[in-house]
What does this fold into?
Amino acid sequence: MKRLVLITAATAVGVGGTAAAVSAGVAPARTAAPAAASSIAWGACPTDVTGGAYLKNAECGQVEVPLDYGKPDGRKISVAVSRVKATDRANYQGVLLGNPGGPGGSGLYLSGGLASWLPKEVAARYDIIGFDPRGVESSKPAISCVPGHSDPTRPDYVPANAKEEKVWLARSKAYADACQKKFGWMLPHMRTTNSARDVDAIRKALGAPQISYYGFSYGTYLGATYATMFPGNVKRMVWDGNVDSRNVWYEGQLRQNEAFERNMKLWWGWVAKHDSIYHLGTTAKQVEATYYRTRAAAEKAPIGGKIGPSELDDIMLSAGYNTAYYIPFAQILSAWVTEKDPAPLLEWVSEGGGDNSLAVYLAVQGVDAPWPPKWKTWHRDAARQYASGIRFNSWSNTWFNAPIHYWGAKAGKAVKLGDARGRVAPFLLVQSTLDAATPYSGGPQMRKLFPSATLLAERGGKTHSNTLNGNACLDDKVAAYLADGTLAPRRPGNGADVSCDALPALNDPDPNALKAAGKGQGKDVLIGRP
It folds into this structure.
């Protein structure tokens, strides 16, 4: 499943409204007892890391954990943690850990991030904890196999023949071999179950009897694993953009391809609606045709010398993740198609950033659950989807995951998630009905596995993991729950228990309104969670 990591925007729109009570299904939780003294040596936080600006009011440290929990006295590694301390001690609710997804996403910044995005009166009740899971960025060691693996320009994701497919297979094997050579000692211990044990090690190091947890995207799967393994250690949880545990992980990749095809077509339709601005086509089919002509030309002559068809796909895919990219990506595509100006597109080229997130992503998914052992299965599914019209993401997702086919560490069975004995405290699931990265089925499935969960659906929402992003209907319910445990009651069946409509201004942004307000259409107008 391609990068289940929170897609973020550059400029924030404030969370609307204050925490409003949802019809109560459970009694509000009591104020938490103060945590025991932390055993973490807190100090200054790094600033040259993901979301470093959010760490200016935080303190950071490392928590030592066993590499192999089966050998607790053996080799040690450490996970990086950050903290913004509670200021409302009278209404103290304990510690709140955040995870942004991935696997491989850095979450160290989430101490300051959640403190900024939540209403101040809610954030003040928690010690908010960010952390980098094992192997990620500021944790020690940080996994990196081939730092320039994704630098431009790469071969076309869509192989025209067997020879081109073999080029990608060779690249994938070389990457897997490099990971095995550098980190073969660590790769077998990158399962999500070990990260869940690390979360509990953080809890112990903080001196907290229980934790609350906010997980986005893959962070929902980590949260579900933690709740399954340590049900009594959970106070509150919010899972936004839930993974369908039945599809971990190969089948999930295929379902994701279908959902992204739908969402890209929705974006192309939006672009066509505003053809007077972008001039890329008056129908979704015309815009789609324009895109694929541009893509084909980029294979012969990379845009600005750096953007071939694969780089172009990678950039534009974000419009399928998050509607905050609708306006800027229509603008930069239009600048190239209509004016042959490559500069706006080149601002979005990803190069020189290293491969830590990719390496950890592959390391976790490569051992979490089995993948098809024969390449012909991968090829057949990619070719079948592409031929059926699922063109945008079928081959690119295949090659993103292909190093797993050659992975040096053996995969185990997927962990069986759930709470059959009802030991997990009531918590909140959130799912947007048109989420592409984690399709909607994940929400009802998690609700089925955890009888104490309430499912909040965002009807028509196209942005992945969309809480704390400006939709007051969603955000007020999250805030009410985190403030005192208020939740809507579960309803019969396996559908949503409560719902909100997607906010039109965010879900289908109006470029004319921005133009009237005197704003441009580049990175500076991205809307959503920063």
Residues 116 and 126 are 13 Å apart (CA to CA).
